[in-house]
Design goal:
The chain is 23% helix and 29% strand. By secondary structure, it is α/β, with parallel strands linked by helices. The strands form 3 sheets. Strands 1-9-2-3-12-11-10 form a 7-stranded mixed beta sheet, with no helix packed on it. α5 runs parallel beside α6.
Amino acid sequence: MAASTMKCGVDTGILLEAGTNELEILIIEVAGGWYGVNVAKVREVLEAVPPTRLPECHRAVEGSVNIRGRVVELVNLAEFFGADDETTQARPSDRMLIMEFNQQLIAFRVHAVDTIIRTSWANVQPMPRFDTSSAPVTSIVPLEDRMVLMLDFEAIGMAVGMTGQSLLDPEQPQTAAGPLESILFGPVVFAEDSATTHKLLQNELRLSGCPNYRGFHDGRAAWEHLCELAAGLTPETIREKLAGVISDVEMPQMDGFSLTRSIREHPVLGDVPVVLFSSIVSKDNEKKGLQVGADAQIAKGNYRDLVQTLAEVIRTRGTTQAIHDKSL
């Protein structure tokens, strides 16, 4: 795979242009395995420090650490993965990844930080889907000397107690009309590589009055489906086949920015409502979303905001100015 390698701590030239379908991956080692995380989620890498223990928390949560005056939970990834007691013990060479996603800070103890690679999302392979698998992995990056597993930090965060669950209870029958119920002419298509978030999105769409939706686990598969829907249609008639698109930003094969740009440049799909649903909500990502023509960008975890914003975009698309990021 063609990828340039850069040492940690060196200015890597963070990708500023949207729609290039590129990313930078920080490669870490935990319990003898190699894992990857999008550099955009990593605030800094620090030497591990002893945490303050917390009662009655997830077994993988070691406690809290002070990061420049902010109290941050420290998660032992080896413990979360179920490694043996000797492997999970703190060691002098351990590092802490200080990460920000879903508008929260969280620290992860890892055994080593290796390097950073820049590559294309096209080189990131979707994770095979097994009904019995609950592994917190979204995709695989094949390198010349090893296979790197991209971790599903949203799923890990929710498993240890971070917020992010749906605000609508799937066990309760819906008594009032959902925000999407009376305005949809066609189905909603969504692209989301996290298995956990994928299920929550399905639930939220159903309870919001959207009985017809189609989900994909990578951007390329979603794009191919959209092109099939558009075949033989016009910008006016596509609404009968497609009400709108929800897209994650980080996805194998094609990221959400590239997917949005492709939609906007398509002669039939160009006016379809697109809402980005991302765990990385920042001014830079807001600018990138605007560059490629997204109607809105909502932080992951805000499921009610997501469906209400989608409903608003569907109502107003083509008649008023596009909605900007409401979560910033």
